[in-house]
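Recap from last week: sequence in, structure out.
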Amino acid sequence: MKRVVKYIIFALIAVLFVGTFVFLFKNSRPAKEQYQELEAKYGDISRTTVITGKIVPRNEVNVKPQINGIIAELYKEAGQQVKEGEVIAKLRVIPDMNSLSSAQSRVRLADINLKQAQTNYEREKALYDKHLVSEEEFDQVLQAYNQAKEEKAAAQESLEVIRDGVSKRNATGSSTLVRSTITGLILDIPVKVGNSVIQANTMNDGTTVATVANMSDLIFDGNIDETEVGSLVEGMPMVIKIGALADYSTDAALEYISPKAVENNGANQFEIKAAVSGNSDKMIRSGYSANAEIILEHADSVLMIPESALEFSGDSTFVYLKSADTYTKTPVTTGLSDGINIEIKDGLSEGDMVRGSRIINTDKKKK
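Predicted structure tokens:
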């Protein structure tokens, strides 16, 4: 009996040993690799690029004063519409002391000359009335008198302009009134009452009293990398989306490509512009960030596969074509790619199945 129990124990140990060996052997064998199968089919492919930029008015001007002075009054504020010639601000003149002194001296001299001319005129007229001088002599004295009066008026007007910025005879055309040069929307008034302003000259650009723009004519202004600018031509369609307006997009046409590159973060880029069509339901503000999507290349009804199915060896491109239960390495000629799918010009036919990415056996990992 003891011998039977002994044999049974040995048998159980042998079975356990063989079972463990078989289990370890099966788990040590590599699992059969499985792959996605991708079909070659016809479709449309487009290669696009997205350009970042901003929305700006086509015509934006800085309104500057015609004279130096201090802001005395502001009649407008940012956000208001203004017409060409409408007054935005009024200045109080700060006269140049040298110019003022010269103008005052000119007035005094003109006054002296006028008094002398008036005396000569009155004397000559008395003689002319008695027929003691000729008409020609009287006319010369009269002309000198009239010239002296005109010189006095001109000197007085010059003094008023230098001192007050406006003369009595030309009050409507006063240079103390800062007027808009275009019709549009006031984007900014960077000055306040009491600020000093200077006119533009050869030494400086002058003080901007207001920035005015025509907001009914907006453009997209962006930059494209030099590697892609060669694919652009004026008139190409594009879609513009504004980040601040989630549901807003508009079709546009490329209308300007800069002939000169600008360096931006170490890369050469070219400025592009496109008109933005208006939308009565949306308030588009100057300076909005925007993206423009341009189709650089397009192909209709071409044979294509997912680009992930491609393999590369040197200068050759190939795929693994499914044939029965095996995959055959097959060279292909590729064309246009959109980053996801790629055109196959030669090497495959519609309906062919090619090997894609490997499928990972998650069940084995759990074990």
